[in-house]
Write a structure and sequence with these properties.
Layout: H1 8-11, H2 30-49, H3 56-74, H4 83-95
Length: 141
Amino acid sequence: MRLAVDDEIYNVNAVWLGPPGKTLPFRARYVAYGVGAAVFVLVQMLERRLGIGFGFFALAYSMLVTVAVTKLILRVVDHDRPVSAVLRGLANEISAPRATTRMTTATIRPARIRAVPARPGRTRPRGNHSPATGSTSGSES
C-alpha cells in the first residue's frame, strides 16, 4: 500500500512539457531524457555488434526497445533513489563476492543397493568383525 506524500516539495514533478502552447504528447521527467539517450546509444552499439544494419525498421525497433528499457529503469528511480544510487547498487551486486559453488559428482551403483531389506535378526555383520562368542583365539582351560 502506498501512502500519499504530504510534502509539497515532492508533489512537484520535474517534467518538461514542451514549448509554451505546443506541449508534447507525453510526460517525461528530465532524468528520462538522459537515461533514454544513454540506453539508445547502448542499443545502437549492440545492434552494430550483432550485424544489424542501419535502416528505418532497425531504428524503429531500437526506439521501441529504448522506450521499454528506459521505463523499466525509471520504475526504480525516484526522488529518494536517484539514477546514480541505482547504478552503484547494480555495480555492488555484480561485483560482490559470492560463495564458490563447485559441482560434485556422485556415482550411484544399483548393485550395492538392496531391493529387499533383510529380515530383523538375520543380518550378517559387516566389515572384519567376528561374531561375539565370548571365546578368544587361544584354548580354553
